[in-house]
UniProtKB/TrEMBL annotation:
PANTHER family: ALPHA-AMINOADIPIC SEMIALDEHYDE DEHYDROGENASE. Transmembrane segments: none annotated. The active site is at E251. This is aldehyde dehydrogenase (NAD(+)). It is an enzyme of class 1 (oxidoreductase). It comes from Sphaerimonospora thailandensis.
Length: 501
């Protein structure tokens, strides 16, 4: 029998709402969870509940909040296998990858549990006597977090852990098609002792979430918006936040390039292309979009790449496979549209395209050679198991091709020449650069995020995310017993600027 999933606001289930079935994409006739979707008013109400709870949570000393984060990490670690199995069941991610995703939550908690003792401000010298200046990090208030379902537990933790550590309350809207995984993660967070209302989870459609967010921003009960999803939706959320003088944290799509230089280790490059192009069925924001390979090694690389893809195992995500099914019917339909972008001047490898045999949402991996800089397959994000290949003659040309789509999330270069690696790093617009590694892969203590169509320059993970969930507050303390006016009552020491030796 399918799980029954409700939104949780102020520690209580909210039962009313439209019914939604979260399916197992490996067996689409199997419902994993029956989800009650909330409306816009419910989302706005959750933000009011969070605002009321946040005041007390902010008064809890930051090191104590850090201990709560430590407890979350231990709880997740103790429930690793159960949570990973649920992720595999609900979104079709291979079990080995799901285990890695859960590990990322633990790593994030391990990093941030100590930040409760390191939310440092500064003591700053004053230009006046008997006066001291200070800076403090203070929580923003309520964070509304909207996440996608391709990483249903790891990516949310990038937001939830630092937001809560910094003294904020959170209203989290996960993807409906990953509701069971999200609800399980919420229960683990709640079991760590978070007060009711500090973390709320609301399941809703995209349209109702947007309308509810607009209501909450108008009410003044949301002070930070975090969004992971498509560039198109991110642009709408950015516009909405801008009207309320807020700067959201936007982690959006990517058209991530991999440059293969003539001196590259081709076996290593093929291994990186296989993992980043087809791992998670190409449904990562950091998935490989286009291989930009030097014309001298194009044929050899392509032959090896096609052979590796041909030999890759695709199927039941509980087994040892490169990838399983697509996330949901909507992603399968969208992927079939991407396949229509293949043009007569393209060469398709290694075999058939389209849906594979069986009942699951399984699709053949596709390499498209000969993509051109004005092709849709070159310029636009494709969320699924399809990778383009093109050629270049000089490194400057490769960098120009890599930047042309206008995204700027992740990038990669395969070379044994340090000079080429650093030239690529300085010329690429991406927020993340890998050398002799794939475009996919993040560590909990390194900044994650993109530029251009991939985001607004905000960063997640590591100490850098603290700037998303805190605001700087300046304080001056004058103990001179008199009013000292800045820039006016300042002691002057007069130099003899005409002195010469």
């Amino acid at each position: 029998m399918a799980r029954q999933i409700f939104s949780v606001i102020g520690g209580k289930d909210v039962a009313s709402g439209t019914a939604y079935a979260s399916i197992n994409p490996a067996r689409p006739d199997e419902t994993v969870a029956a989800v009650a979707l909330a409306d816009a008013a419910t989302f706005a109400g959750a933000c009011r509940t969070a605002a009321a709870a946040q005041r007390e949570w902010a008064r809890v000393p930051a090191p104590v909040r850090g201990r709560v984060i430590a407890s979350i990490g231990r709880l997740v670690e103790a429930n690793t296998e159960a949570l990973a199995r649920l992720v595999t069941e609900e979104i079709g991610k291979p079990y080995a990858e799901a285990l890695g995703e859960v590990r990322e939550i633990v790593d994030t908690c391990d990093f941030f549990l100590g930040e409760g003792r390191r939310l440092y401000g500064q003591t700053v010298p004053s230009e006046m006597p008997d006066k001291s200046l200070f800076t403090f990090r203070v929580p923003v208030g309520v964070a509304a977090i909207v996440t996608a379902g391709n990483f249903p537990v790891a990516v949310p933790s990038w937001y939830l852990v630092p937001a809560l550590l910094c003294g904020n309350a959170v209203v989290w809207k996960p993807a409906e098609y990953a509701a069971a995984s999200a609800h399980a993660l919420y229960r683990l967070f709640a079991a760590a002792g978070l007060p009711a209302g500090v973390l709320n989870v609301v399941f809703a459609s995209g349209a109702d979430t947007y309308d509810g967010l607009e209501l909450a921003l108008t009410d003044g009960t949301v002070h930070k918006v975090g969004f992971t999803g498509s560039s198109a939706v991110g642009r709408k959320i950015g516009e909405l936040c801008g009207r309320h003088l807020q700067s959201p944290c936007l982690e959006l799509g990517g058209k991530n390039p991999m440059v293969v230089m003539p001196d590259a280790d081709l076996d290593l490059a093929v291994e990186g292309a296989l993992f980043s192009g087809f791992g998670t069925a190409g449904q990562r924001c950091t998935s490989l979009g286009t291989v930009i390979v030097h014309e001298d090694v194009h044929d050899e690389f392509l032959g090896r790449f096609a052979e590796a893809v041909r030999n890759a195992k695709i199927g039941d995500p509980t087994g040892d496979v490169l990838y399983g099914p697509l996330l949901d019917h909507r992603f399968a339909e969208r992927y079939e549209e991407y396949l229509t972008w293949i043009r007569p001047h393209h060469t398709v490898l290694p075999g058939p395209t389209g849906r594979m045999d069986g009942t699951g949402l399984y699709y053949h991996p596709v390499i498209v050679d000969g993509v051109r800089p004005d092709d849709r397959l070159f310029l636009e994000e494709t969320f699924g198991p399809i990778v383009g290949v093109t050629t270049f003659g000089t490194l400057d040309e490769a960098i120009e091709l890599a930047n042309r789509p206008g995204y700027g999330l992740s990038s990669s270069i395969y070379t044994t020449d340090p000079k080429a690696a650093f030239r690529f790093r300085s010329g690429i617009s991406a927020g993340m650069v890998s050398v002799n590694n794939s475009t996919s892969g993040a560590e909990a203590h390194l900044p994650f995020g993109g530029n251009g169509k991939s985001g607004n320059g905000s960063r997640q993970s590591g100490m850098w995310v603290l700037d998303q969930f805190t605001r700087w507050q300046a304080m001056n303390w004058d103990y001179s017993g008199r009013l000292q006016k800045a820039q006016m009552d300042v002691a002057e020491i007069t130099p003899d600027l005409g002195f010469r030796i």
